[in-house]
């Protein structure tokens, strides 16, 4: 069974922190594009909703996935990782058969 991506509470909390720090309420866009060292790469950025986007919302914070990217992100988990090596939004994608070391490029 295919499901839309799931966003963790930690990712929503980080979006709330960004909104508070910047004074702007913008959504997190998670997209898949061709490129990268493994064939596809994630494009993760703050953006505004567009027509056709899947909007995942919690407590006023939004994560957006466009129609083209949605099949690549079925059943994925969008999380926020804050480790010694750095802090970033990460994607745990069960559709990816392999990925590069940086975690932003993958193949299916």
Automatic annotation (TrEMBL):
* Segments crossing the lipid bilayer: none
Q: One Pfam family of this protein, by short name?
A: Fe-S_biosyn
| Stored InterPro entries | ATAP, ATAP_core_dom, FeS_cluster_insertion_CS, HesB-like_dom_sf
The GO terms this record gives for MF are: 2 iron, 2 sulfur cluster binding; 4 iron, 4 sulfur cluster binding; iron ion binding
Q: Which Gene3D superfamilies match?
A: HesB-like domain
Domain annotation Core: ranges? 7-103
Please provide the Gene Ontology terms (biological process) for this protein. Answer: iron-sulfur cluster assembly
PANTHER family tied to this protein? IRON-SULFUR CLUSTER ASSEMBLY 2 HOMOLOG, MITOCHONDRIAL
- The name of this protein is Iron-sulfur cluster assembly accessory protein
In which organism is this protein found?
A: Aliigemmobacter aestuarii
What lineage, starting at the top, does this entry show?
Answer: Bacteria, Pseudomonadati, Pseudomonadota, Alphaproteobacteria, Rhodobacterales
